[in-house]
Design brief:
Strand order of the largest sheet: 14-15-16-13-12-18-19
Strand content: 15-25%
Radius of gyration: 25 Å
Distance between the termini: 81 Å
Largest sheet: 7 strands, mixed
Length: about 500
């Protein structure tokens, strides 16, 4: 059976690429190639930027009311296709159906937030700032924005974190979809034009390598770059794009820690940790791969965590009974298994090994079962670096202060969590943790779209985060206007301003 070769989208049209390089897209549960996507040429990427630039003039001049009504329509289109997009996301990425549905819903939620853009874009104004002068600050769009997308949230990140606020504020955008998981994003873009009837060129989409994507960092038509991915790439994007005068928000790697104190409700804590650590097969930056446990309850905690992890059904991602689906690719599975072996070599205690899991009927799928390491010591790489898989490491500590010190010693600070019944320690943790998103007895402290996704340290580079008020500010700039109107009595008066005395003529 012939494998479909996908196209790229410029100005609302799906075009054949002239490339000779193609990337396979696999069904993660079967290992079968289900499509190929182009590595678009540099000329094709530049054409996408040109399309967005051309569309910007008319799109940015539409009224806030008109853009808001289109966002309402768009929200309803996404809801109407929720189940279709859920299955597609599950197949190409490996998330179970509930997780894939959540991915799409997390694209719809920021779209709803963007429907409030008339209020979100309101500026400030003062009458009579000096005699006869009024001043107002407006928020205006930037121009063309580039969105560089990771593989792990093909609906939420491009169509939740990037597109809604970018276009609602009046910008146009070029998405670089992830070559491993582009199908969900491509289907959403088809709906964007076919059913929501947005003007051509408002959103454009390419798939390409880092070499072609470098154009986004230097092309003067691109005013801002929003990125999600590894820290090394994020640092490069931040340094090059900002040096070229662009705004940048780079959401990067994470090694989130949870601190479990001896007074915690262990049943509730382990349930939350199981959901956070093994949800999406650990392929998300808000997973909890490191659990720092007070020694007095560590044995009981580890036994309970292992018991619950072993009950997770590993299986085909689009089987409704599956709780832990496959990882995205054969190469990613190999990387995770290498990390597990490294943990063994480093001397950590392997409590549960997920490397040899086999799903009957899906023997070629990219499955890794839940894995747990105990007695992970400072300096062990499995406890410090992002694995991005269903691997949990346990670090034992004497008390709160030692646990907090270990957590804050990590270079990443996307999120951090504490499980405790003590208001004193919860509040102390809230103040002193380096984590940008903090959970108190909450396993996944991701805020709703009305608040920023606020990573810290090596988990984020930039000044303004995605979503919330930060997102609106990122996609807009301030324009301050000072006005004065003359009448006959004031035309010839001398007026003092901050620049000096001016004679009216």
């Amino acid at each position: 059976m012939a494998i479909e070769r996908k196209k790229y989208c410029i100005n609302g049209e799906w075009l054949e690429s002239k490339t000779d390089k193609w990337s396979p897209v696999t069904d993660s549960s079967t290992g079968e190639v289900i499509a190929e996507v182009p590595c678009c040429t540099a000329d094709e990427v530049e054409a996408a930027i040109a399309s967005a630039q051309e569309a910007f003039t008319s799109w940015s001049q539409k009224s806030l009311s008109a853009r808001t009504q289109m966002m309402f329509t768009w929200r309803n289109v996404l809801l109407a296709h929720l189940e279709e997009l859920t299955v597609l996301c599950s197949k190409e990425l490996g998330k179970n159906l509930d997780e894939a549905r959540g991915d799409v819903l997390k694209a719809i939620e920021p779209t709803e937030h963007a429907c409030g853009i008339p209020s979100l874009m309101q500026g400030d104004a003062s009458l009579q700032v000096t005699t006869g002068f009024d001043t107002a600050t407006y928020r205006v769009p930037l121009g063309v924005v580039a969105g560089i997308v990771p593989f792990n949230f093909p609906a939420m990140i491009p169509w939740g974190w990037m597109v809604p606020l970018a276009i609602a504020t009046g910008n146009t955008i070029v998405l670089k979809a992830a070559s491993q998981t582009p199908l969900t994003s491509m289907r959403i873009l088809e709906l964007f034009y076919e059913e929501a009837h947005f003007p051509k060129g408002v959103v454009n989409l390419v798939t390409c390598s880092r070499n072609e994507a470098e154009i986004f960092l230097t092309d003067p038509r691109v005013k801002a770059v929003t990125f999600v991915g590894t820290t090394g790439v994020g640092k490069h994007i931040y340094s090059v794009a900002s040096a070229n005068g662009k705004r940048v928000q780079a959401q990067c790697e994470a090694k989130n820690h949870a601190l479990v104190l001896e007074d915690a409700d262990l049943e509730s804590a382990t349930n939350a940790i199981i959901n956070s650590t093994y949800g999406c097969a650990g392929m998300r930056c808000m997973a909890l791969p490191v659990i720092v446990v007070q020694e007095s309850v560590a044995d009981k905690f580890v036994a309970l965590l292992k018991e619950k992890a072993m009950k997770l059904k590993v299986g085909c991602s689009y089987d409704p009974e599956t709780k832990l689906g496959p990882v995205v690719s054969a190469s990613h599975k190999k990387s995770i298994c290498s990390w597990i072996q490294k943990g063994v070599d480093e001397g950590a205690e392997l409590v549960l090994d997920g490397r040899d899991v086999v799903v009957p009927g899906y023997e070629n799928g990219f499955f890794v079962g839940p894995t747990i390491f105990d007695h992970v010591k400072p300096g062990m790489e499995i406890g410090d670096k992002e694995i991005f898989g269903p691997v949990t490491v346990i670090k034992r500590v004497k008390d709160f202060d030692e646990g907090l010190a270990i957590m804050n010693a990590n270079p990443f600070a996307n999120g951090s969590v504490i499980f405790t019944q003590s208001g004193f320690y919860a509040r102390k943790f809230e103040f002193l943790t380096d984590g940008g998103m903090v959970g108190i007895n909450v396993g996944i402290p991701v805020p709703t779209a009305y608040f920023p996704f606020s990573g810290n340290k090596d988990s984020f580079f930039g000044d303004l985060h995605v979503l919330g008020k930060d997102g609106v500010r990122f996609y807009t700039r301030a324009k301050t206007v000072t006005k004065h109107w003359y009448d006959e009595s004031s035309r010839h008066k001398t007026v003092s301003t901050w620049e000096g005395t001016v004679e009216r003529v």
